[in-house]
Amino acid sequence: MLRRRPRPRREPQGDQRWAADLRAALFCAASLFVLLHLVDFAGGTLDALRSGMWSGLALVLFAVLFPPRVTAGHHWLAVRGLLGERRVSTDLLTHVSRRGGVAQRIVLRDALGNRVELDPKVLAGSPMLWHELDTGARRARERGLLRAGAAVLEGLADRIEGDEARAVFKASGLG
Where are the bilayer-spanning segments (predicted)? Predict the structure, then answer.
């Protein structure tokens, strides 16, 4: 009897800049905490109430700056923030849109009703994340599920591939 070899499983891919962004958020919050305590101490007004207030302010700053962790695997993409994780099935995508404003966001919705938002810079900075999303989106398009947002993905692909080409030219000394 022949045994079928199991298909190799791909490891989930993560945002390559997440750890650095987390360190930056921690540094900013800790710097604010220390600076406010030093100023209060130098002025002779530091007490338990003010220290608690400055600690709370530093925690709020950390919560605002906390970077969401984006991971992707075979036909899924997840965004984990402070309050939990949201996940979409990339091969079941039905809608992709771009929200403008100060901080641009890509919004992905799947046929199961799930929705995630992420910064397009995360995809541009992590080619393996982009590959997982693009592979799933192509499959959704082939199935006829992805009806809105193909142009958004194509624009993002052009931007990411252009950035990669410029990086190759720069590394080779041509650009």
Answer: 20-39, 51-70
